[in-house]
Amino acid sequence: MSGRVPTVTSPPWSKPTKTIVTLVMVVLLLGLLMRIDAATWTSLVLTVVFAYLLSPLVNFFEHRLYGLHHYESRRTLAVLMTWLVLFGLMGIVVGLIVPATLSQLRQFAEDVPDLMESTQGDIEEFLSQPITIGDFTIVPWEEIQGLMPFGEETTDGTNGDSTFSDTLQSALFSISDSALTVVGGAVSVVVSTFLALVMMFYIMRDGPTFIDYFVRATPESYRGDILRLFHELGLIWNAYLRGQIMLGVAVGSATYVVTLILGLPQSLLLAILAGFLEFIPNLGPTLSAIPAVLFALTSPSSTVGLDAGLAFALVTAGAYMAIQQLEAIFLVPRILGNSLDLHPLVVLVAILIGSSLAGLLGVILAAPTVATLRLFGRYVRGKLLDEELFPAVAPYSAQQRGMVYQVMHYFLSKRFPVLPPSGTEDWQRITSGSTDRAQES
Predict the structure, then answer these.
(1) In angstroms, rounded to a whole number, what is the distance separating the alpha carbons of residues 96 and 105?
(2) Which of 42, 71, 97, 311 registers the highest number of CB atoms within 10 A of its CB?
(3) How far apart are CA 48 and CA 45, in angstroms?
(4) Residue 301 per-residue DSSP state
(5) C-alpha angle 347/349/352, rounded to 5°?
(6) Rounded distance, CA 159 to CA 162, Å?
(7) Within 13 Å and on the Cβ side, how many CA atoms surround 169?
(8) What is the mean pLDDT of residues 280-297?
(9) What residue segments make up the domains of the chain, in order of their start?
């Protein structure tokens, strides 16, 4: 075989051929994607999300490695330094928080029987009070006991067909099957974790290269649109993911301080729960308040002198509502901004759909996914209707300011009125009036 490069002799494809080949490739790709199970998708999504969250730290280290001029070496070292910082922080968190959390969990497990007995006694006492309706008097607890199908204890002996050896053998088989299942699950988790870490390494190191390759693979006339879409997607996901982490830390810290002041039990568990549930928009803060209210109904305060009951529960609910309102007024506009700007009803519907499709991960990522779909929908609408593709950025003077700025601007505008823009009729009228007054004087 000669070293001469063969010449391509096939004619260019016609438009129908290109359409058919494209449709076949799309159908095959969708069929392949649909055969991937939910666990694999969850692992892939979590890998990409964590790599995206850590990318600013990688860029921070990369820009400060001045001695390395080779890009891949500098980027690899930056990723390794990021992992050292991450695992160091995880070690500190595990060493400080996990022992206290386990201690509170152990204390909570010990208190559960007493709490259940106390709650049952309170419910029985409340439902045992008679209710008179006209000539009828009803005791709800007696009616409930009459309706409950309390079964009788069985008094028959053991089954004669089964022997002790058969029972022991089936128990051993059951234990061995469970052990094999646990071992297989542990091996699968270890392998999946290792593969996820390897994928994270390559995504963190070569993420900008992947984006650049994707942009260069698109037609040249669309590269500006692709770059703008990546910019808008970065605003959405950056604000949500990193913003939710900041909100979770802030709300968890505030909840810990408030529950300590109120004297609620298991303050650390309540704070961790509030921080994690912050990732569920609209529903998370309400769900985090339920355990605290239940504690207030069943346990007295250890600081403010309130007994367990409705009054303590109302105080606790009011404290949680105050945290939510302060978060919505001061933190959310400054951390999340208007990148999502979704109606609560849309978010709730997205959470329901996300939970049915991807479980907990679908609930957490429902809001930014809807915002992403809305972004692509606006782009397609703009192309179809020849409208503006992306909303214009509001000028600095029109952007929302804080309350202090608005109050100062109000009083200063009363004392020093702002002139209208030059060239307008109002500006000409004011300047002509000033000229006339100067001539008269």
Answers:
(1) 15
(2) 42
(3) 5
(4) -
(5) 110
(6) 6
(7) 5
(8) 86
(9) 40-111+185-219
